[in-house]
Give the backbone structure.
Amino acid sequence: MTILGQLALWLALLLAAWGSIVGILGGSQRRPELIQSARRTSYALFGVVSVAAIALLTALLRNDFNVQYVWAYTSRNLPTPYLISAFYGGQAGSLLFWALILTVFAAAAQWLTPRRYDHLMPYVAAVTSVVTLFFVAVVLFAANPFERMVFTPPDGNGLNPQLQNPGMVMHPPMLYLGYVSITIPFAFAVAALITRRLDTGWLHAIRRWTIVSWIFLTAGIVLGMWWAYVELGWGGYWAWDPVENASLLPWLTMTAFLHSVMIQEKRGMLKKWNMILIVTSFMLSIFGTFITRSGVISSVHSFAQSAVGYFFLVFLILSGGVTAWLLVTRLPDLEAESQLESMVSREASFLFNNLLLVGMAFSVLWGTLFPIVSELVRGTQVTVGPPFFNQVNIPIGLALLALTGIGPLIAWRKASTRNLRRQFTGPVLSALAVAAVFIAVGVRDFYTLMAFGLSGFVVGTIGQEFWRGVGARHRLHRENYALAFARLVGRNRRRYGGYVVHLGVVVVFVAFAGNAFKKQTEASLEPGESVTVRSPFGYDYTFTHMGVSQYEQLNRFVSAASLEVRRGDEPLGIMTSEKRQYWDSFKQAQFQPSTEAAIESGLREDVYVVFAGSVEGTEEAVYQITLNPLVWWLWFGGFVLVIGGAITVWPGGGGPTRASLRRAMAGYQAQMVGRDKEAAVVR
Amino acid sequence: MLARTKFVMGAGLITVSVGYLMASGIKDTGVYFVTPTELAEKVKADPSIHDVGVRMGARVVSGSIMRDVADQTITFEVTSRAASCRMGRSGPPLCWPSAVPVTRHSQRPER
């Protein structure tokens, strides 16, 4: 099978090179047979890379330990779901997985894009082929998962225990889907730049792709947080690790784009800015991979160091250079059609939102790269950790939260004072009420109060928007409230889906604010001994150590320590945290012992228990106990974000109608004619 | 005042604020990580150095981590190209020059 896989990769390399050439030639010379060939190459690439992926999966599932990749990341006793996830558990496999997803998206873009964008499609095929060419080349020349060894070991090295977790089965594919799908909007942007068709057409073509990409990135980031929380055993979910940051960077620029694109659609402004945001998002997705794979920055996610980093660096420089050249030469075609009329307008609030998001992205990038920058400039490596990121990003995040509430309340172009008073009264009262409640219960921390108060403001805004929309339908169409609500959302999916996303943002912020009340304690307990911890909600949790048991389970030896937990007088049950020593099929220990935290999740707070170890082989156990307020809301907030995104992207409802597209095209043509006339006058 | 001018002022304010937050953040929280060589020099200069918080940039030697659950301490070795150190709470760190990797082209040292 590995020979088939190798052949498939070589064929993919040739096909990708062919697709790149015929895409550009077909587009520039308008030769239908070449355009058709570029389109078909995208489909063929999907087929061929799928064959390579199936070959690797087969090798993994068959325990073919002669294949170095299979030996390095699996073992005979590894459960099947993790055999499959080992596909993207290592460097080479994950790059092949990336190439596979890319070809899926490239083929889907060719398949699903309406005919009216045919003028862009050969270039889209060319760009996706070039990116595929790069990934296939990296897989073939720098990280080949089909390399065989000179002998066949009886068993494999096994999968890192921290990757043997359901969160890890889902988190990387989601993140990869997010990263890779940015290639499609990027390809359309480059196609629009090459063809100089810089009207809103290409934006309509990529609208769904950008939201889909944003949804996957969001889901990937939240699942990554969940994995870190349940698996790493330190009681938190975000450590500002370089690779976590790398996933956040394109998310921030994509979020900025999703807002600024509305200004271009409505007012014909920010054409250059939008182009830069899409290109930057793509570059950041590649940069994230470069950080993970190159080993330039230490991270818990680092893969083995290899030449892969150089490939990425070269690709980053080349693609950045070509795109920058295209952008600079097309600047005259990206002039705005209108100007900002008032500071008190939705455009202005979106612009500030964009500046803050990009500012946040820049600060995260700066903090991530600071060790390298300081070493280059001063010769010493100075590192910044979570305190830096928190100090910079909490104020920016709160400003963004405020704008999340302000934006929808202000009219486009210019808002009158009367209109502002009408719009802002409810949300401001809501913010004050929430802040007053939290002050009354004794919260004094400024940032926490701001987070809760502004959350109240945004919820007030969203509630008011829904209430007025439903009320209007109820009056105009005589629909009952439930029907009016369903139709309001169903027929304005982009707008109301966006509000659902904003609601998700509020929920996530509330969960973050809960972090300020976290309580952590350490206790060494003999069987029968207890420790009591007071929660920020005023409950007394009593933890009684019940003993340590040891047993074999699947592919590991487990030492499990159990605590009986009570909240006040109410028994909550028994929480068991484990220390696991994984072994291969010959019961030889693999990896360092790992920890499985016991988590009792609730709406108010999570009880998080980690068994740190037994004292000298006795049943005396050392525990780290953490009370984590409002963490459950983070996962729920992530779910709401994804649902909101799904509403906006769902077919029908909010998409551009044929009539609106005709109007947009007519406007563009009129503008072009006007420009020609101006040029004639100048001549 | 034109809306555009006002916007440029607002944007400038945001840029300056973000810049200030970043600069002050680096100043307040930036930490220098000593290398094993520098730690070795410190130990040489003051052999009694002990119970001092040190942030260190080096790689942990695989398999060197020893956990003592009873007194909740960890002993481990860290290494860079130039030097290696054994870190623990029982005494000052013990440092030594890292072994020169033996390669195919390395010469046998003269006696």
The interface with chain B takes residues 298, 339-343, 345, 348, 351-352, 355-356, 359-360, 362-363, 366-367, 370, 374, 380-385, 387-389, 391-392, 395-396, 522, 524, 592, 612-616, 622 of chain A (CB under 8 Å). The first strand of chain A starts at residue 382 and ends at 383. Chain A is about 65% helix and 10% strand. Residues 670 and 676 of chain A are 10 Å apart (CA to CA).
